[in-house]
Amino acid sequence: MPGLIIGVGLRPSTSTESVRLAIREVLSERMDGRLTGLATLDRRAREPVLRAIAVEFGVPLHGYSAAELATVAVGEPSSRTAAAVGAASVAEAAALLAADGGRLVIARRVSQGVVVAVAEHGCDVR
């Protein structure tokens, strides 16, 4: 069963329930995988909402700087995201970085006001 990383982009005021629902929704599409981590912008990784969600799902939360995220090529870079955080992608880029050589299996989408994307590890990660 492949390991899945969900990249998450959100505003600081986003509710825990909105993040939970967005993650559950995207996971429901990948029943063949197992969630192995969440990934986001480093300053969002310090948000209590994402920390609580990572604990709830029992997975690590990976945070990356805007400079690290900016090194990842994505299919549809966002000029709005680039202006706001300094990188043209958060969810997709963070998921790909945390998947460490994996591939994007669900492109960026907005659900519950939360941006999510899913990358798959090349092998099952424990």
TrEMBL record:
InterPro entries: CbiG_hydrolase, CobE/GbiG_C, CobE/GbiG_C_sf. Gene3D superfamilies: CobE/GbiG C-terminal domain (3.30.420.180). Pfam families: CbiG_C. It comes from the Bacteria. Residues 4-119 form the CobE/GbiG C-terminal domain. SUPFAM superfamilies: CobE/GbiG C-terminal domain-like. This is CobE/GbiG C-terminal domain-containing protein. It comes from Nocardia callitridis.
